Each structure stands twice: as C-alpha cells, then as structure tokens.
Amino acid sequence: MHHARSARLRAGLLLLGLVAAVSAWAQDVGLVEKKVFTLPSYTTVGGQTIKNVRLGYETYGKLNAQGDNAIFIAHFYSGTSHAAGKYKETDAAPGYWNSIIGPGKAIDTNKYFVLSADTFANLNTKDPNVFTTGPSSINPDTGKPYGMSFPVVSMRDSVRAHKALLDSLGVKKLAAVAGASGGSIQAMEWGALYPDFVARVIHVIGPGFDIHPYVVGLLDVWVTPIRLDPRWNGGDYYGREEPLDGVAQALKIVTLTARHWGWAEKTFGYKFADEKKDPAAAPGNQFQIEAALNSAGAARAKTTDANHMIYMSKANQLYRLTDAEVKGIKAKILFVPAASDVIFPPELSRRALERFRAQGGRGELFVIEGDGGHLDGVLAIVKAADAIKRFIESD
Predict the structure, then answer these.
(1) Residues with catalytic roles
(2) pLDDT tens for residues 285-339?
(3) Confidence band, pLDDT 50/70/90 cuts, at residue 2
C-alpha cells in the first residue's frame, strides 16, 4: 500500500511538473500596444485615389536582423487586428486567435515577429482600438465623411496597403501569412501578389482561390437589412441617427449563417426565450435562439458602421484569382476548412488544393472537426494548432 501511494504521489508530482513546464513555455503575449500606419495617398486597384490613409496594427515578438522571421495575421470579415493578447489587464478577453499565438504556441512569438493590421473599411469604426479608412472617414476634399462616395476597395487593396506597412517596418520576407475567412482571402492574395515575399499561406475556413457565387449572394443578403433601414438614407447618415436596427439585423444574419444546425440544436434546442411566454401563444413570443441572435446583433451594432459593412461585403465579393495568378504562387499552402462550415464548406478547400497541385503547387489539408460551423475557424482554431505549427516549421 505504501509503495502504491508513493508511486501515485510520484506520478502526480511528475504530472504537475509537466503541466507547469508546458504552462511556463506556452504563455500569452501579454499586453499589446495598438499603433497607426499612415499613407499620404493610396491608389486603389480600381484606379481611385484615397488621401490620408490610416490603418491600425499591432505586433507580437521581435523582427530579426535579416527581417525574414515575420508572420502576418489577416483578420476576418467582422474582425480586427486584435489577434492575440490584451490591451489592458481588465479586458474581458484576449485577441481572437490567442490560443495559437504566443510564446511556445503554434505561431511562436519567441521565434517569429507576428503582425496584424486593420483593413480598409473595417466594420468596427466605433471601437477605440480600431483605426481604419473607409466611408466614415473625412474626405479632405470636402471636409465631410465620404459616405457612399468612398472608392470601392477590394481585399487586395488592404493587402497592398499592409505590404507598405511591412516595408516600413523592415520586413524582408514573410515566413507565413495566415487568416480566417476574409483573412484567408487576404492570405491568398498575399501569396498571389508577392510570390517571392511569402513562403507559406495558411488559409483557414476559406473559399480557395475565388469567392463562390453562392457566397456573393450571401454577402448581399447580409447587408440587405441595412439598405432597408430608413435611417440608412442611401449612406448619408453621419451626424444624425444611424441605422442601428438594420445593422443589428444584418449582424444577426451573419452570426446565424456562420454557425451550423448542430450548434443551434445543442446550444438552444426548442427552449423559450421566456419560460412563461410560449411562442405558440402570441406572435411576439420568441424561442431562445431568436432572442439570443437578436441580442448579439444589437450588442455588436454599437461598434459597427453600416456603410463599412456594405463596403466589406463588396470587398469580399470581388475576390477571384486568375489562373495565371494561382500558377504564380510559390508559397506552400495549408488549407484548414471546418467540417461543419456552411459558408465555405471543406469541398471548396479540397477543390482548390487539387487545382493548386495540378499546377505544380505544394499544399496540404487539415479539417477542423466539430459542429460549430464557420466560426470553428476562430473559436476552435486550437484544434488545428499542431497542424499549423508543423506547417510553419516544415521545409
């Protein structure tokens, strides 16, 4: 008995030691400082000029003397550059990919200089930690917000501006560029635009090399409630009451389509929003899933600009690489779809991988299992941590 207890004690101490060692190695990046990159002028892919560009960015880790240990993280449709760490100790949660970015993690900030930047027309204009140029920005030629006169911007435009940011910081090569959803589109654009600059592309919950026609339609559906809100006023609402109802309903639709029926069943089932109010008893009585989605949409609307959401949908709709651009990609590509994704199903990644390999490219596939839908590429990204780490460290 004594020997058995001693053995159990030793095993327990060993386990605690291993846990402590892992915890000491895999840590968070800590507090993060948000910075602003400026360009006096930028000419869009469509040939329009935007003056006084301001885009926010943040970094984790240090750039080496050769400038070749950088990894860029591109954010998703409704996301920001806040990929890891916290701005303040009191922040409710760290950046969205905190589980895989940090010392000893899959994207190891002990080894790599990791950067992320806000896109043009970022949705979250009212977040004090977001800096973006878009329809809500002041047009220096008129002294008033652009509104819908702001030039059309594509995801490629954001990538080109971010390349100027990296150049200004002394980055000579990207060991990898990674992103989820709209970020995966940017990641692939990096590989196509700068084939000698990008070594690896990590394409998480993405469409492959072009947006699917179904999603072109879906992106229009997402912003339809904004256009139907009378307060939108054709995009001219700055300085007056904003179309918050339309934005809230738009974000509700985004959230629902970014999930999966398995998530809905497991999370809500047929519960009532109020157990005393049967949905069968009155038109206004709701199921719990309805109330939860409405509440989430209303909360997110407080930091979202309506016109920016319309412009971000357009930017994603315009994504389509040519055959020549795909063939010109020199980077290795890791496709990381989510099994239950109904926006960009795994079939799209498999199809893109076959196309890339047929053109002589090197690529791999890792599927995130689960029933969380499209959002598994953000909320369950740790499931792909080992695959991402191996990919970054591979030749």
Answers:
(1) 181, 341, 374
(2) 999 999 999 999 999 999 999 999 999 999 999 999 999 999 999 999 999 999 9
(3) very low
Superfamily of domain 35-215+314-393: Alpha/Beta hydrolase fold, catalytic domain (3.40.50.1820)
Nearest to 377 by CA among 331, 347, 344: 344
Residue that has been written with the tokens 């000893």 in this structure = 104
How far apart are alpha carbons 163 and 199 in whole angstroms?
A: 15
The two counts, helices (H) then strands (E), for the chain are 12, 12
Question: How far apart are the C-alpha atoms of 80 and 91, rounded to whole Å?
Answer: 15
Written as one string, the DSSP assignment of 269-307 is TT-BSSTTS-TTT-TT--BHHHHHHHHHHHHHHTT--HH
Q: What is the rounded CA–CA span in Å between residue 126 and residue 193?
A: 31
pLDDT in tens, 173-224: 999 999 999 999 999 999 999 999 999 999 999 999 999 999 999 999 999 9
Burial class (CB in 10 A: 0-12, 13-18, 19+), 282: exposed
Contact in structure between 147 and 242 (CB atoms under 8 Å) = no
